[in-house]
User: Which sequence fits this backbone?
């Protein structure tokens, strides 16, 4: 095996390299060997150590492999549970802020402008570097180099602090210019309140990368919970107090968004304390001579920058799109600044629900992606293709009913939560519900491509979709009759194109096309039945509730419709046999759930059911054989 410069790193022994060493690296959290080799620069003594550990791995047999699998599943289960908790907390943080009793439509526009600028800078500063840090520390930990581990952490922490500090200064010094560039000058106080959070989160990500590189997901999970709880409590409390004190909306928005900074401070304090108590520097001898700081910084940037660029493409597009919406509403559609802010604010409220389905897809990739990597590492392309198809089907099963529910119940969902808001809200939510399905499917497609070693292809598809989104929004949002309704149409076009391109890339990468009939057939049929049931139940329940207030009647009918929709969808999933044991095996502890629900295997699902006469004949034949045996 050679690196990109042609220098031989390890002799071409496929059995050792791709089988034993790749399993060893995977067990330690490293990428599989063909992608790990170009950047790790293995010295001779490291190769010797890896071979000894690989030999020990072969002697250990199944027990060691099973232990590593259980360790991974435990970490994945922790991250799945934590991600769901964190995203739900984030949902309930933004949900009340947009109510007319707190920020309202215009105040929420200030909040969203500042948060989008913060998200873009944070993505640039942290998207790829924690991954790079985790890889480098995992490599050093695998090779038992404690001095290298400590130097990598200190050097990476300093680098991240410098990067985060630069973006923090940018937001502090140019907050008014950034707000004006986004078409909302009153968002400047909110940008100012968020500025310290960038450098704080950068330092926190260094500690998270360190712990993840040591194979420990627990501090990352608890740190995220602390961050979200702090944001929720501090942000909502400050917003309520400032509104009650009759402060202007820009000041109240800054108080609400300061919760993000407060939560980040709490998470950093926890991560620093955890590392100090659990990862004190081990004594090491002179045999372990760490690499120079310049070498570590170069490796750190070489790994992190491409990932950061790829992750920031969509964030940059969203930032440009948000600025475009506010400016086009005023310059082309003819809205005054206050009306444009209200429309943009109600669009931000609809996005709160639109992001909800994606919260459940992100943790699923934690289990699905490594499974595909493992099959490709062993050369099982057919099995990897089957796993990719199951992954897409799981994504469709989770997101399609949520999208259908948001589409059918858009009016009661939006009006009950944001009573008195701009009437454009329900229409925006309907369009965003359609877009949410394509968003989630593109997330899963991108994850599968990255697991297949095609990290650059998602960047291409995302860039193409983003350009289409900007072009569509430029035309539609600037049309007075369409105005803000054009923004979700642009999102639908953007993510639908990404899904199509990802599907083409997957067909070429895996060598076999995922069967669309199996991916979306049963979920689509079940979701349609569920949507019809929700629509019918909502209309019927509203009739006897006419005597109540309109908001209370809508809420009661909506709850009844959601309950009916869940029951119908579960029944339809069972009738169509949309979920198999193979699908559940991709989820942490999913096999246990599958056995509890008595799910079928893929072979049993595909096998046609025997007719009654055939079953009776088989039973008679079985009884005859048993009697003959006796």
Assistant:
């Amino acid at each position: 095996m050679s690196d990109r410069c042609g220098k031989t790193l390890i002799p071409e022994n496929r059995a050792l390299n791709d089988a034993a060493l790749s399993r060893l690296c995977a067990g330690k959290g490293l990428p599989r060997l063909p992608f790990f080799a170009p950047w790790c620069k293995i010295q001779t003594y490291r190769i010797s150590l890896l071979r000894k550990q690989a030999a020990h791995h072969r002697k250990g047999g199944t027990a060691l492999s099973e232990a590593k699998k259980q360790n991974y599943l435990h970490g994945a289960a922790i991250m799945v549970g934590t991600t769901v908790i964190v995203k739900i907390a984030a949902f309930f943080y933004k949900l009340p802020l947009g109510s007319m009793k707190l920020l309202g439509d215009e105040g929420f526009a200030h909040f969203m402008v500042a948060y989008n600028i913060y998200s873009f800078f944070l993505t640039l500063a942290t998207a790829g570097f924690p991954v790079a840090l985790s890889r480098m520390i995992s490599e050093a930990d695998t090779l038992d180099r404690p001095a290298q581990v400590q130097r990598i952490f200190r050097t990476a922490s300093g680098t991240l602090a410098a990067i985060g500090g630069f973006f923090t200064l940018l937001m502090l010094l140019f907050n008014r210019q950034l707000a004006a560039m986004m078409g909302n000058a009153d968002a400047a106080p909110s940008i100012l309140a968020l500025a310290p959070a960038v450098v704080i989160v950068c330092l926190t990500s260094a500690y998270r990368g360190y712990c993840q590189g040591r194979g420990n997901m627990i501090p990352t999970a608890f740190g995220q919970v602390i961050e979200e709880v702090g944001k929720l409590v501090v942000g909502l409390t400050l917003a309520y107090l400032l509104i009650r004190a009759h402060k202007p909306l820009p000041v109240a928005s800054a108080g609400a968004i300061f919760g993000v900074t407060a939560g980040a401070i709490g998470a950093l304090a926890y991560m620093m304390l955890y590392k100090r108590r659990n990862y004190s520097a081990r004594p090491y001898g002179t045999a372990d001579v760490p690499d120079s700081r310049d070498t570590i910084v170069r490796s750190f940037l070489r790994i992190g920058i491409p990932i950061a660029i790829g992750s920031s493409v969509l964030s940059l597009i969203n930032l440009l799109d948000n600025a475009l919406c506010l400016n086009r509403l005023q310059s082309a559609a003819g809205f005054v600044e206050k009306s444009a802010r209200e429309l943009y604010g109600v669009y931000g409220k609809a996005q709160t629900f639109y992001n909800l389905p994606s919260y459940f897809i992100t943790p699923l990739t934690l289990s699905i992606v490594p499974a595909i990597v493992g099959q490709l590492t062993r050369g099982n392309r057919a099995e990897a293709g089957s796993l990719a198809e199951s992954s897409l089907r799981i994504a469709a099963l989770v997101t399609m009913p949520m999208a259908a529910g948001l589409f059918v119940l858009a009016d009661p969902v939006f009006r009950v939560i944001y009573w008195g808001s701009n009437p454009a809200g329900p229409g925006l939510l309907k369009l965003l519900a359609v877009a949410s399905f394509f968003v989630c499917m593109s997330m899963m497609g991108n994850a599968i491509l990255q697991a297949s070693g095609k990290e650059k292809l998602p960047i291409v598809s995302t860039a193409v979709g983003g350009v289409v989104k900007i072009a569509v929004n430029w035309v539609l949002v600037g049309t007075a009759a369409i105005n803000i309704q054009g923004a979700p149409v642009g999102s639908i076009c953007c993510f639908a194109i990404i899904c199509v391109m990802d599907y083409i890339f997957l067909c070429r990468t895996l060598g076999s096309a995922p069967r669309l009939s199996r991916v979306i057939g049963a979920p689509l049929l079940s979701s349609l039945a569920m949507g019809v049931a929700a629509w019918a139940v909502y209309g019927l329940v509203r009739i006897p509730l006419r005597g109540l207030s309109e908001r209370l009647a809508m809420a009661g009918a909506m709850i009844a419709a959601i309950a009916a929709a869940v029951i119908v969808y579960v029944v339809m999933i069972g009738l169509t046999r949309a979920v198999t044991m193979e699908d559940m095996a991709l989820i942490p502890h999913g096999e246990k759930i599958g056995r509890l629900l008595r799910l079928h295997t893929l072979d049993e699902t595909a096998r046609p059911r025997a007719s009654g006469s055939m079953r009776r004949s088989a039973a008679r034949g079985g009884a005859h054989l048993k009697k003959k045996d006796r």
In short: The chain has 26 helices and no strands. Residues 530 and 568 are 6 Å apart (CA to CA). Residues 1-73, 603-630 have pLDDT under 50 and may be disordered.
